[in-house]
Amino acid sequence: MDITFDNNIPIYIQLLEYIKIYIMSGAFKCGEKLPSVRDFAINFKVNPNTMQKALSELEDIGLIYTERTNGKFVTTDEKVIEKLKDEYALTLAKSYFNGMKKIGLGKADSIKYLERMDK
Q1: How far apart are CA 91 and CA 98, in angstroms?
Q2: What is the pLDDT of residue 3?
Q3: DSSP 118
Q4: Could you report the per-residue pLDDT of 21-80, keeping only the tens digit for each?
Q5: Is residue 64 exposed (0-12), middle (13-18) or buried (19+ Cβ within 10 Å)?
Q6: What is the secondary structure of 36-97 as a DSSP string?
Q7: Residue 72 and residue 19: Cα distance in Å, rounded?
Q8: Model confidence at 2, in pLDDT bands (50, 70, 90)?
Q9: 33: closest CA among 82, 6, 67?
Q10: Which residues 6+ apart lie within 8 Å of 41 measured at CB?
Q11: Do 63 and 80 meet the contact criterion of CB atoms below 8 Å apart?
């Protein structure tokens, strides 16, 4: 899990986003046990306290849960993951269309560029 951190964004927020993406993409599956805080911290090369803060945030939004003696797990509620994925996809789409709008392209032209990617 080698990532490059942006110095302008708190590391725990970046970790939170990376783990969200791993969950949304299925790299971490519904109900799957996650690595320990220590193992995560080693893999991401961060302080365990920073990693714990990111995991606590994920728990607060219901994406992961803790079993007291067994560790942390991805939620078993697929609807939570699908809702997150939908919101994330919408954010990406808005960002794309806003970027295209800045260079003078409307929605229809922007969609043509997306369609060209498949060719």
Answers
A1: 10
A2: 82
A3: T
A4: 999 999 999 999 999 999 999 999 999 999 999 999 999 999 999 999 999 999 999 999
A5: buried
A6: PHHHHHHHHTS-HHHHHHHHHHHHHTTSEEEETTTEEEE-S-HHHHHHHHHHHHHHHHHHHH
A7: 13
A8: low
A9: 67
A10: 47, 48, 50, 51
A11: yes
Measure the CA–CA gap between 21 and 34, rounded to whole angstroms.
14
Rounded to whole angstroms, the Cα distance separating 47 from 74 reads 22
pTM of the model as a whole: 0.83
- 73 near 35, Cβ under 8 Å? no
Find residue 33's DSSP bridge partners: 73
Q: Which residue has the higher pLDDT, 9 or 4?
A: 9
- Under 8 Å CB-to-CB from 28, ≥6 apart: which residues? 19, 22, 34, 74
